[in-house]
Amino acid sequence: MVPFGTLAFMPGKLVHTNEVTVLLGDNWFAKCSAKQAQKIVDHRMKYVKSELDNLSKTMKNFEARIGFAKDLETISASKGDYVDIREEVGNNDTSVTKGRQRIAHKPNSKPKMDAIFDLKEEDEENYTDNRDGGIKKGIMSEEELWARLDELEKLEELQDEQDRLSDNADVNGDDTSSSSSEEEKEGDAAPPINGLSLKPSWASVPHSKAPPNVNRKEEEDEEEGGDCLPTIFFSHTVEPKKVRINTGKNTTLKFSERKEQKEHSKRKKKNGHNNGHSHHELHKITTPADIYRLFVDVKNGEPIPRKSILKSRSRENSVCSDTSESSAADFDERRMIGRSFSHDEATHSDTSDGITEEDSPTSMPLHPTSRFEAFSGTVIEKDPMPSVVPHLTIAPPALPTILERKQEEVMPEVAPPQQAPKRVSKFKAARLQQK
Amino acid sequence: MADAIQKKLKVELEKYTQMQKDVSKSMSARQKLETQLTENNIVKEELDLLDSSNIVYKLIGPVLVKQELDEAKATVAKRLEYINGEIQRYETLLKDMEKKSEQHREVLSSLQQEFQKAQGLAIGKV
């Protein structure tokens, strides 16, 4: 039944079923057999597929273009994934106190060891901090340490110069003045010490690492150049004088001392390696006054110029007066590394002497041996500090300075801690005397 | 001053919109022609495939009119040519309209700037 309109059907027959009317497109029809119709259909299908493929290709091309454009945009505008990281390292004098500044360790130096020594010179607090820092520093690669050292040295040099100027004034003064200056230095150095402490510790570390006698000089020199230990120097660390210099032997020498030590170390080199090691690095002594500067007792963290360089204190890492004062007790603790007898530098004041004296006793066994060597020849007047002297166990006050120098080489590092505890007493004694 | 500029702006804006419409119209017409072109191409191919054994009809309204194969082929060919011609015509037309619309755009932007200045002055004065 064939539909006849919408409401009726009509009986009909299919005739010529094989004939099919095919739409060719655009209102054109063709009557053809079924097979032909099939062909037409297939043909059409192919055509359509090909068209589809073409369109998809163009789409892909467009998408690729988009991607390129995006990449270009990111690269040109935001520079891709590269981010410029800038960290402004401010001089964290205060912050430094807590943590040691990273000090590049000289390749041959023994950072860990130095760290321990350095602390002695500085206040005990710093000591602990330094130690931690020093140890940490040990982790640093040698190369980094060297670089660090260089930086620190430069910084220290600058500071040394400043200190020298100030130190000279102090040294020339009376014992009281010197002691007071030391105290002042210490006070001033408090903030910078933090930075410096790191330095010395750092420097000390390298010292410790390297064989005490042999490489010490090199290291020390480098270190001293940078003011004690090469430290990542931050502008904030302004330590005019009280730079704790770590003369190779783990003694944090005060900044001023360092210069002296450096000089002293240089001299020692000439004379002999022994004492020069620690000094060289730490102190660059260009003038006799520098020597005094080197010998600065660190009283409670403040470099106090020693009145007498000859005192045993000076023996310690020479430059660092701190070593002597700090305290025999500390010394013992710190003795691990051994004190660097870089006390060649004249002790700024009696107090410093006392410190050195203290250092000397605590110094490593090498110390005594080197001590008794004929000193390099630097005779430094020393103001008698009876109160201070008692500390000294070993070297006689007159010799300490020189012996210390020699001992510097021997002693890888002066135990700063030793000085710390002693120093206090010494300074106090000095003050009392002055009074 | 500001008012005058505003009026000018409006006039220009209208012209510009008109231009845009014309452009879009011609665009759509061209697209139609494009499709017809492809369609006729297919038909031509199909007709070529066909042989004289079968009959070709042409749909005119609700009527299927019988056509001969050759005639159908000729017709389709002519239609194709016609379509191509139309497309070209529309192409040229579109280009011209584009240019005109660009000019209008520039005029419009300049007028807008003037208007803003005038408005600024007016505000300043006020």
Automatic annotation (TrEMBL), chain B:
<dbReference type="InterPro" id="IPR009053">
    <property type="entry name" value="Prefoldin"/>
</dbReference>
<dbReference type="InterPro" id="IPR002777">
    <property type="entry name" value="PFD_beta-like"/>
</dbReference>
<dbReference type="Pfam" id="PF01920">
    <property type="entry name" value="Prefoldin_2"/>
</dbReference>
<keyword id="KW-0143">Chaperone</keyword>
<comment type="subunit">
    <text>Heterohexamer of two PFD-alpha type and four PFD-beta type subunits. Component of the PAQosome complex which is responsible for the biogenesis of several protein complexes and which consists of R2TP complex members RUVBL1, RUVBL2, RPAP3 and PIH1D1, URI complex members PFDN2, PFDN6, PDRG1, UXT and URI1 as well as ASDURF, POLR2E and DNAAF10/WDR92.</text>
</comment>
<dbReference type="GO" id="GO:0016272">
    <property type="term" value="C:prefoldin complex"/>
</dbReference>
<comment type="similarity">
    <text>Belongs to the prefoldin subunit beta family.</text>
</comment>
<keyword id="KW-0175">Coiled coil</keyword>
<feature type="coiled-coil region">
    <location>
        <begin position="80"/>
        <end position="114"/>
    </location>
</feature>
<dbReference type="GO" id="GO:0005737">
    <property type="term" value="C:cytoplasm"/>
</dbReference>
<protein>
    <recommendedName>
        <fullName>Prefoldin subunit 6</fullName>
    </recommendedName>
</protein>
<dbReference type="GO" id="GO:0051082">
    <property type="term" value="F:unfolded protein binding"/>
</dbReference>
<dbReference type="GO" id="GO:0051087">
    <property type="term" value="F:protein-folding chaperone binding"/>
</dbReference>
<dbReference type="GO" id="GO:0006457">
    <property type="term" value="P:protein folding"/>
</dbReference>
<dbReference type="GO" id="GO:0051131">
    <property type="term" value="P:chaperone-mediated protein complex assembly"/>
</dbReference>
<comment type="function">
    <text>Binds specifically to cytosolic chaperonin (c-CPN) and transfers target proteins to it. Binds to nascent polypeptide chain and promotes folding in an environment in which there are many competing pathways for nonnative proteins.</text>
</comment>
